[in-house]
Amino acid sequence: MHNWDLTPTQAIALQKELQAQIIHEPIDVDAVALVAGVDVSVKNGISQAAVVVCALPNFKVIEVALATLPTPFPYVPGLLTFREGPVLIEAFSQLRHEPDAFLFDGQGIAHPRRIGVAAHMGLLLDRPSVGCGKTRLCGYHGEPGPEKGSFTPLHDKVRTPVKRLGGQEEIIGMVVRTRANVSPVFVSPGHRADIPTSVALTMRCTTRYRLPEPIRLAHQAAGRLAP
């Protein structure tokens, strides 16, 4: 764990330090029996976190961990983790079950410094983590096909020229159509995950809604905590 009481400049420096520790490896999607959906609602200066642990494949809710704290950090694009991290840590500490993987309403490596909330929190948890954002934080992409399950790469300029990529661009995630003819979501690996298995886990957790079911349930639970 690290200190959360940081200035934006210090927070950016910490992100750059932690990003080097992120591990990219496939998730054994078939072995995932418990998956946690994670979301935070911020209202009236209060941050409210929900972690909903579901059993696969039926999405039976095994556990809901809730936490509420004063919001400690201003809204700064790219620094969402420092706004949500403390209350998420409080919610994670209440879990009685250990999820095999975590799905976050937010970004993984699809982030200017390649360490969104899913990557940052996954590193602290040391568990496979996937970011599933409703909006794009960075990068550029084509439009995926209209049918459910179609996807297209999310590209971004490389931060440091990489010879094998021509020093031009890298794939930082996938833009995934989780429901036919509905706006796609932005899926990227966090920690101990890679792009193909992040997409596979997201689709395995998607029912008839745009958001994967664990995230949808976490979103509802966090919203119900609102004062």
> How many alpha or pi helices?
5
The CATH topology is given as archaeoglobus fulgidus dsm 4304 fold
Question: What is the CATH architecture assignment?
Answer: 2-Layer Sandwich
Helices and strands, in order, run as: HEEEHEHEEEEEHH
| Radius of gyration, whole Å | 16 Å
- What is the CATH homologous superfamily assignment? archaeoglobus fulgidus dsm 4304 superfamily
Alpha-beta content class: alpha+beta
Q: Tell me, what's the shape?
A: globular
Secondary structure topology:
Elements: H1 8-19, E1 34-43, E2 46-55, E3 60-70, H2 80-92, E4 101-104, H3 117-125, E5 129-133, E6 140-141, E7 151-157, E8 169-176, E9 185-189, H4 195-204, H5 213-224
Parallel strand pairs: 1-4, 4-5
Antiparallel strand pairs: 1-2, 2-3, 5-9, 6-7, 7-8, 8-9
